[in-house]
Amino acid sequence: MMEEGTVSNQSETLLVHPAVKPLSFLLGTWRGEGQGFFPTISSFNYSEDLQFSHSPNKPVIAYSQKTWNLKSGQPMHSESGYWRPKPDGTIEVVIAQSTGLVEVQKGTYDMKEGAVKLNSELVGNASKVKEISRVFKVENCELSYVVEMATSLIGLQPHLKASLKKL
């Protein structure tokens, strides 16, 4: 039995920083499949690994995500960044994508709902993308998310959705 405020990560038990404790349900590696769509592209399916890791002396969660083509196994997209939860239920997130696009997001988390909701404050190095929102939810041992996107020509609408299981 683990003590409250600890997480098990690859047979190691680590203390969780108090700022990260409300989001400790995210920690670990998740794997699953998703779908991508948008009015200006052909729909596609992908496999994904998503990892949330944490160093106990830091009030931050490291985030990394990689996708690959479901049929060919070829790499498609990757991104990484940091999630900084605040005691008041707000969260600040920075994400750098392999395409060169950078997101600065702010949002909220609700540990009772197992949900994190993010909206872009800034989308940098993108000529067409103007806004990105992300909603993550853990329910019944499954992590699902929806990413919405707006471009200079099309308003905010769903772009990606996936369902992942913890490894």
UniProtKB/TrEMBL annotation:
Keyword Nucleotide-binding tagged: no
Alphabetical keyword list: Isomerase
Organism superkingdom: Eukaryota
SUPFAM superfamilies from the UniProt entry: Lipocalins
Known catalytic reactions: peroxynitrite = nitrate
Pfam families the record matches: THAP4_heme-bd
Domain THAP4-like heme-binding: 20-166
Protein name: Peroxynitrite isomerase Rv2717c
Organism: Nicotiana tabacum
